[in-house]
């Protein structure tokens, strides 16, 4: 049997059996593909870190099937202010929103990197929801790629760079959002956005009755601990091997020989002719479409033996905030030279 399997009932039962016995299964979600293990089983979760080569200080997101299963990962009861913050956003579930809450006792240290908080999410992809409903335990799952590389948005991407420790890859088609979930920390001192993603910061800010600036604010003394609190925010992340240059408006662009271009909308023929290869993510410049196709295009051009990849930019609003966050991290390595 091959590792990539369509998500039939039989395959979902098989996936549950593998997870129950401590094996790893790659799962489709609406954001990106995840690499899942039983979140209550420390030795299964350890395999995720080893196959991804993920630093142990980078905690995982725990996926649950429904609101009444949040208790499988989180310490209850929640303090009143946290409970009302959760109530303000919980109808965005199932969906691309992760909340950081006090950690429940069944979640081992390895999942949270020793933190007393745990990141939880209810994904909306029907295949993974159906798998979660079959499992008596929650699933810890980071993205199914080698640490620091571009996240996978198809089942085939999950094969690259991961070994046979991954027992099965469930194919649920290409991911709808194509960027990771938004992460928000709920706390008695107020909610804080830790990572922009599929749910716009503007939507969350409105739910909490805060300005976007307040939701994103990091006070001076929190800044020092932020690295540990949300290691997904490390400046160099999501990086292809090929150098990346972002095309901010108003900058003069020199196109070196053998450069590829990722464009957010249709380009003029003259512009196309300056590049070795061009990927247009959306004919009309629709940013949801751009987000959905961005990681696949990065992977594709990264395999094209180019000297450099030029990528369009957009204003950091709505889904554009997550797109620019990922692109700036993808370009961080290149700008160090
Ligand atoms: P990934 O699923 O690969 O995008 O990584 C999950 C991300 O979730 C991590 O990089 C962290 O930024 C974030 N995360 C997971 N657990 C916590 C936590 N307890 N507190 C804050 N952030 C977390
Ligand atoms: Mg990741």
UniProtKB/TrEMBL annotation:
GO molecular function, one term: double-stranded RNA binding
Residue stretches in coiled coil: none
Amino-acid positions noted as binding ATP in the UniProt annotation, renumbered to this chain: 54, 58, 63, 117, 143, 151, 195, 238
Keyword Flavoprotein: no
UniProt record similarity statement: Belongs to the SUA5 family.
Function: Required for the formation of a threonylcarbamoyl group on adenosine at position 37 (t(6)A37) in tRNAs that read codons beginning with adenine.
Name of the protein in question: Threonylcarbamoyl-AMP synthase
Annotated source species: Novipirellula aureliae
Lineage, top ranks: Bacteria, Pseudomonadati, Planctomycetota, Planctomycetia, Pirellulales
Encoding gene per record: ywlC
């Amino acid at each position: 049997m091959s590792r990539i399997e369509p998500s039939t009932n039989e395959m979902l039962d098989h996936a549950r059996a593998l997870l129950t016995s401590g094996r790893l299964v790659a799962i489709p979600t609406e954001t990106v593909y995840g690499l899942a293990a039983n979140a209550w089983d420390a030795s299964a979760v350890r395999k995720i870190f080893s196959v991804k080569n993920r630093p142990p200080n980078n905690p995982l997101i725990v996926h649950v099937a429904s609101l009444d299963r949040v208790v499988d990962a989180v310490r209850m009861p929640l303090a009143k202010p946290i409970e009302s913050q959760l109530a303000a956003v919980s109808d965005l579930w199932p969906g691309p929103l992760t909340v950081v809450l006090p950690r429940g006792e069944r979640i081992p240290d390895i999942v949270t990197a020793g933190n007393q908080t745990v990141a939880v999410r209810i994904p909306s992809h029907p295949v993974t929801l159906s798998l979660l409903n079959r499992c008596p335990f929650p699933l810890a799952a980071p993205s199914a790629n080698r640490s620091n590389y571009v996240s996978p948005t198809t089942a085939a991407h999950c094969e690259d760079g991961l070994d046979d420790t991954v027992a099965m890859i469930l194919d649920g088609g290409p991911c709808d959002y194509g960027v990771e979930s938004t992460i928000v920390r709920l706390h008695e001192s107020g909610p804080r956005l830790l990572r922009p993603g599929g749910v716009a910061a503007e939507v969350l800010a409105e739910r909490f009755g805060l300005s976007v600036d307040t939701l994103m604010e990091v006070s001076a003394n929190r800044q020092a601990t932020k690295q540990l609190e949300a290691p997904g925010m490390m400046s160099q992340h999501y990086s292809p091997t090929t150098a990346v240059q972002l095309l901010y408006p108003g900058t003069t662009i020199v196109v070196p020989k053998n450069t590829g271009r990722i464009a957010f909308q249709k380009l003029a023929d003259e512009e196309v002719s300056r590049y070795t290869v061009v990927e247009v993510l959306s004919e009309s410049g629709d940013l949801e479409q751009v987000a959905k196709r961005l990681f696949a295009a990065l992977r594709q051009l990264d395999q094209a033996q180019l000297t450099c990849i030029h990528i369009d930019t957009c204003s950091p609003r709505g889904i554009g905030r997550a797109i620019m966050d990922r692109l700036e991290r993808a370009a961080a390595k290149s700008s160090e030279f």
